[in-house]
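>> Question from a student workshop board

For tomorrow's exercise we were told to take the sequence and the ligand below, predict the bound structure, and bring the output to class. My setup keeps failing. Could a helper post the expected result so I can at least see what it should look like? The ligand is zinc ion.
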Amino acid sequence: MAPMLLSQIHMKLSIKQLGVIAFLIFQTHCAPQAPSAQEPCGFNQNSYGQRISWKALVPVKMYIDPAFPQSFRTAIQEAMNTWNKQLGKNILSIAGERSGSKPQRDNLSVIYWYTTWDQSTQESREEQANTTIHYADNQLVEADIQVNAMNFTYSLNPSYNEVDLQSVLIHELGHVLGLKHNAEEPSVMAKRLQNGTTRRNLFAADVLNCRCEY
Ligand SMILES: [Zn+2]
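>> Workshop helper replied:
Here is what the output should look like for this input. Compare the format with yours to find the bug.
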């Protein structure tokens, strides 16, 4: 009888110990801990200072709204190729045409062409395009590009009074990837693009910044 009793006590102890270990592991993994801030690298950052990007969810698949003129769609592919080639990986791709979507949170990233545009402020009227991003924590989940075709005339080969669509899209795709405006160094993320000029290649800063996340 005695050895059996000992063995029973031993087992109970082991189970107790296991319980404590399991609890400790649970504590370690679940204790709320503020994430540490990261170098900006030109990216938008969340309230913890973490860079907001697509992480492993690349290539980003972007749809094209039917209103986007067929004759201008090559500029979308060319602008994506610029990022993909110069970063040496496929991070942006066209998913096809998508009708009925709106530039709001619907988990679809879409490129829109608008012939009507908010005219209420000078800032809005001077906006060639804009990009809205949606994210959770530090993970981008959606990005919508809107091109202002009301106040600007676009071209694939611009004369002095036209805007180079490919250059604009390279800039907006930078926002899609999570980049902010860059006023400090030569960059496709400079806020302004003059009529009649092109900016179709990434600068060193753009590539370096992107390498922090992609
Ligand atoms: Zn911008």
